[in-house]
Amino acid sequence: MSTGKIGVGVIGLRMGNGHLAGYAKDPRCTIIGVCDVDKDLLATRQQEYKARVAVTDYRELLSIPEIGLISVASPDYYHAEQSIAAMEAGKDVLCEKPLTLTMAEAKEIAAAVKRTGRRFMIGQVCRYAPGFVLAKRLIERGEIGRLYLAESEYAHSYRGARGVGDWRVDPRREPLIGGGCHAVDLLRWIAGDVTEAFGYANHLCLTDWPVNDCSLGLFQFASGAIGKVMVSVGCVRPYTMRSVFYGTEGTIVCDNTSADIQLCSQKNLTGAPAFATLPVNIASHNVGAEIREFIDCIVANKPVVTNVDEGVKTVATCIAVAESARTGKPVRVQDLL
Prior knowledge:
alpha/beta, Rossmann fold, Dihydrodipicolinate Reductase, domain 2, 2 domains, six-stranded parallel beta sheet, 10 helices, 26% strand, globular
């Protein structure tokens, strides 16, 4: 019997636990099915969220008519297969970042969105972190003048976080794309599309891993601004996504783990430059807000802003940095799209 609510299924129950919590809090949703290959975890999540169905094969979820929305929260290299299959089964899809790890698969997902007409959101969750949301609002309001330099970092030690079954330790998964896409997407969201990228990389920390553990991307934005992103997964320090935005009339310093952001604006100065502290809530992975926005789009039949095209462009920008690091030459992002 239909309840009038959106029936939800979640694939991948470690990262997907945040999705389940978000759906459970939204009265417009009902969790019908969960999927994971770990049977103990599957049983735990089924009991916790009172899911009617618990399966180890995601295709079984796709065959349930009452499910209208699928969250794909599995490891990165399953995103394309599972997202495309879900849309072809008539489901809307919320896919965890990164969209995928290759341009070929990114284009296949985008083609499936167009072919099926299903709603699709890419889970670039930094767009919902309160500190970053406020920074973007201030920049759009002109508080720091014209943005001329944007920088961010993804410093996240993977030394004790190889992933279940070592899924992160995979030659297909450059940390620049798999994790660093957070910082790259943040800059794209605030500074706009990147036209050209240059990259450097090294492999000095996690020497038993098959991929570079530190990357630096330099960007030219279509707006005329320039930028950089540093990604380190072998670092010895607490997690941070410290970001700085420089404008012709001020500077913003922010991250997604602090209870405030800092603003220095020419508009408010009466003497020497100084930072004002603006309080924000801490929500580094604000999946709940992401889910609320997607459900709003479904219910009100509104366009999804964090759509598949945004996911494709972020993957392309990351791949441009990785390709430049390999070749020593700048890469035009448009050439990859």
